[in-house]
Amino acid sequence: MIDSLSSDTVVVGVGNTILSDDGVGVHAARLLQSDARVPAGVTILDGGTLGLDLVPYVSDASRILFLDAVNSGSAPGTRVRMTGKGLLGLSGGWSVHQLGVANLIAVLALASTKPQDIVVLGVQPAITDWGTSLTSAVEASLPQLVEAALAQLRQWQESAHDGLPLAKSPCTP
Amino acid sequence: MARIVVDPVTRIEGHLRIEAQVDGGMVSDAWSSGTMFRGIELILRGRDPREAWIWAQRICGVCTMVHALASVSAVEDALSIEVPDNARLIRNIIAATQTIQDHVIHFYHLHALDWVDVVSSLKADPAATSKLAQSISDWPLSSTQYFKGVQDRIRTLAESKQLSLFGAGYWGHPAYHLPPEANLMAVAHYLEALTFQREFIRIHAVLGGKNPHLQTFLVGGMATAMDPNEPGATINPERMDFLVQVAKSAQPFVSQVYIPDVLAIAGFYRDWFGRGEGLGNFMSYGGYPQGSVHDYAAYFLPRGIILNRDLSKVYPVDPGNITEYVAHSWYQYSRGNQVGLNPYEGETNPKYTGPKPPYEFLEVDQKYSWLKAPRYDNKAIEVGPLARLLVAYASGQPDVKALIDTTLAKLNSPPAALFSTLGRVAARALETQLLADRLVGWLEQLRNNMATGKLSIFNGEKWDPSSWPQTARGFGFFEAPRGSLGHWVEIENQAIKNYQAVVPSTWNAGPRDPSGQRGAYEAALIKTPIAEPERPLEILRTVHSFDPCLACAVHVVDARGRPIPVLKQEDEAVRFLGGSERSETTK
């Protein structure tokens, strides 16, 4: 039996790791992949910049946490949190460069058979030119992004029905 | 006369800007500008060539495996490595899976909305929709009840004003011709395509090791364990059964949903078999080796070039004839900007000389794009599914010839109809069917190899860098979903000295060359009728028919929001851009 691609809670790091700060979400996801504090049953994905191709990995989840570089017009390293209807209202308009997280969230709203709780945790990038490392301001905010992600996962875990741990559904090989 | 700017072109991967001159309701000239800067060699220089693919697969946001495959192929070419048969088969299977998946997503989620008016589907009669669906296909999801359910979902979205979900559609535009029932059927299939994709991509999940970026590529073969007696092996008899079962799921979806939808839509837009023609020159590097990677004649989709729409002759491809120009691109070459450089000698020295943002128009008689202008033997060339199938058709590939002839007969059209916007749409669908049919065969070959004890999957003879020559260079290629992808690598003292990639959308979306020859998009837009300049749906139809992918790719989320698309018009009193007077209006 081959398992489903999607589990009930999915963390998706989004971004391009060869474009400097654009990859901050992926860097955070990689840190979470080896963090023992992540609750059991949570799937952590390096989502790259796959856009709609991520649908199979998140469509069955009831909770999705995106970690991403978010241009909020603030100082580099500034963290933002977006959730709820605010995400849908902005759909299409805030992914400026390609079919990105906004389009993915929009398609999920249309195609998903159950309500989904979606949270985006973002960091303002400084530089998104070619480069494989983060700038110092964004690098400095990386641990806080990881902690914020863990806090979100804990909050979801505590609010899970009848206090049981999140359903375990391991990823495919 | 008006100048239309579409920036960014939506429902594509990457960032593309089109400027079009409209004269008497028709495009008289067009300029395509990729506004992203590429330069993968800046990342790869000095690295171990065996790990180049790990970085290269991040060049493109969405088709990561195509760059991984082109990269390992380039290094294998440089070091004269032949991969074992199982590695060839797995690569074909992974590649075909990617292409099938990409084509389905492109048609339903990125392109169909140029032909399908979602809002009109609210007026459809579900019973009539059911009748329509059953008249064109045996696909089981076709009841009145089913279509009513889909319509209710769209209505809920429309009432909550969330139809922007479908991404900047020009609902109600006079160029939409489908009856409401056809629109409703297409929206239902938009949703079904998501379900199809979800199951089908599990082939990659099994063969790729890690999701969603495949991790099993390897210079010399594949890093995939193959063992008939080992339950933990990636490829064992149980997994083969699963892969074959998933692969077979593509055939009914493609033949009963995708192809009938394309034919039905084409029937309502027959004019578009005569629009968007473009360059008339086509190239395919060849895809899906059936034996040795060097035996191009035996590829499932053969290698070749077609010139001037002449299907009676197929010219050979010599990668040495490929050059890139920067006369209209924001780069400078050390030997001047009029020369063309073969990618082995390629240089990427960015120098932006365009207008300072925010600006209204690009300086199109000077430099206006971040894309270089690739040329083959100094000719502008179109690449992509249409190019591949035309080369295969003209080469007499029997599967391709039979499928194209049958389809043209159904459409009551001559082969010349393929040189068009709808020709690209149709070719993409037909290629999906050809690959869906072939995919199962490659899996059966793999199963057969396993059953007969042929388990070799990696050729390690040249793994140790001490076995390499001091200098070496190689060309790796792959027919990606969107067209011909080439990677050029130069290795010196066991490290990468230079690396260049020429991607499909550079061929198609690139700017003019020093002699003024237009790129493929630019040529294809000429004579496009424009009903409403402020809503240039017709431009999107032709540009989307190429499946643009410029996702090289910053994708930073912009929380401040931006209008899409930005549309600007300027009448001739302000700025006259036609003919000889253009030079007077630019600095």
Q: How is this fold's topology laid out?
A:
The complex is a heterodimer of chains A (about 170) and B (about 575).
Chain A: E1 9-14, H1 24-33, E2 42-48, H2 55-58, E3 63-71, E4 79-83, H3 85-89, H4 101-111, E5 117-123, H5 136-159
Chain B: E1 2-7, E2 13-14, E3 16-23, E4 26-34, H1 41-44, H2 52-56, H3 64-78, H4 85-111, H5 126-136, H6 144-159, H7 180-200, H8 202-208, E5 217-218, E6 221-222, H9 237-248, H10 250-268, E7 282-284, E8 304-306, E9 322-325, E10 373-376, H11 385-394, H12 398-411, H13 421-451, E11 471-480, E12 483-492, E13 495-502, H14 504-509, H15 520-525, H16 537-545, E14 549-550, E15 557-558, E16 566-568, H17 582-585
Parallel strand pairs in B: 2-14
Antiparallel strand pairs in B: 1-3, 1-16, 3-4, 5-6, 7-8, 9-10, 11-12, 12-13
Describe this structure in words.
The complex is a heterodimer of chains A (173) and B (587). In chain A, helix 1 links the parallel strand 1 (9-14) and strand 2 (42-48). The longest helix of chain A has 24 residues, at 136-159. Chain A is built from five helices and five strands; from the N terminus they run E-H-E-H-E-E-H-H-E-H. Chain A starts with 8 loop residues before the first strand and ends in a 14-residue tail after the last helix. A five-stranded mixed sheet of chain A has the order 2-1-3-5-4. Chain A has helices spanning 24-33, 55-58, 85-89, 101-111, 136-159; strands at 9-14, 42-48, 63-71, 79-83, 117-123. Chain A has one domain (9-163): Rossmann fold, CATH 3.40.50. Chain A has 173 residues and is an alpha/beta fold. Chain B has 587 residues and is of the alpha+beta class. Chain B has helices at residues 41-44, 52-56, 64-78, 85-111, 126-136, 144-159, 180-200, 202-208, 237-248, 250-268, 385-394, 398-411, 421-451, 504-509, 520-525, 537-545, 582-585, and strands at residues 2-7, 13-14, 16-23, 26-34, 217-218, 221-222, 282-284, 304-306, 322-325, 373-376, 471-480, 483-492, 495-502, 549-550, 557-558, 566-568. The two termini of chain B are 21 Å apart. The model of chain B is unreliable at 551-587 (pLDDT under 50). Chains A and B meet through strand 2, helix 2, strand 3 and helix 4 of A and strand 2, helix 4, helix 7, helix 8 and strand 15 of B.
